[in-house]
């Protein structure tokens, strides 16, 4: 988390939208073998928790139940060149969006896991532009049970939300406009759009 308070945001709806839009993140925890990270699809329940699943053999799976952990969602980002400022006597930096969530994790039962898998697959299938959405009922029940046996569902009760929306808020409106234009021209339109929409 960047220490500059200018880069904070306190809009929970924005956090929820980021989780829903990105849909993927990382879960970090320290286990007896040392610090570990898992890369996971993430789903927000909308009431202060995030859910995810791990392969049964993942290094975190056997330790997470009851632990404090950190989940991170990374949004758009882009390199900011000093050449885009009116005064080039600046240093390079990086604009980015990241959301850290810290909380206690509990293991879900099989019904909870199935509900999570249905919710996540339905949401992402709905985004596809062509064809009929895939649904879990297309799987034979015995095969689905066998595949679900290889994964474990978890829910994190988020106790601390730590967002960073580093969008050149510490620069003037003119400088931000030049940086946004530079980012867009160099192939980072998403972070440029956030700079224009979220910073007044």
Automatic annotation (TrEMBL):
It comes from the Bacteria. Transmembrane segments: none annotated. This is Negative transcriptional regulator. It comes from Novosphingobium subterraneum.
């Amino acid at each position: 988390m960047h220490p500059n308070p200018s880069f904070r945001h306190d809009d929970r709806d924005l956090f929820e939208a980021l989780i829903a839009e990105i849909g993927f993140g990382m879960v970090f925890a320290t286990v007896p073998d040392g610090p570990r990270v898992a890369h996971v699809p993430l789903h927000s329940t909308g009431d202060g928790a995030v859910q995810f699943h791990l392969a049964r053999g993942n290094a975190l799976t056997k330790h997470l139940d009851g632990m404090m952990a950190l989940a991170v969602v990374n949004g758009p980002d882009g390199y900011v060149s000093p050449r885009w400022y009116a005064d080039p006597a600046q240093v390079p930096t990086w604009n980015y969006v990241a959301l850290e969530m810290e909380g206690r994790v509990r293991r879900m039962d099989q019904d909870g896991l199935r509900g999570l898998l249905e919710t996540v697959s339905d949401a992402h299938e709905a985004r596809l532009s062509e064809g009929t959405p895939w649904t879990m009922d297309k799987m034979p029940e015995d095969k689905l049970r066998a595949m679900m046996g290889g994964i474990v569902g978890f829910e994190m009760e988020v106790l601390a939300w730590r967002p960073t929306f580093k969008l050149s808020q510490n620069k003037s409106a003119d400088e931000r406009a030049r940086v946004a234009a530079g980012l867009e021209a160099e192939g980072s339109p998403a972070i440029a759009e956030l700079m224009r929409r979220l910073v007044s």
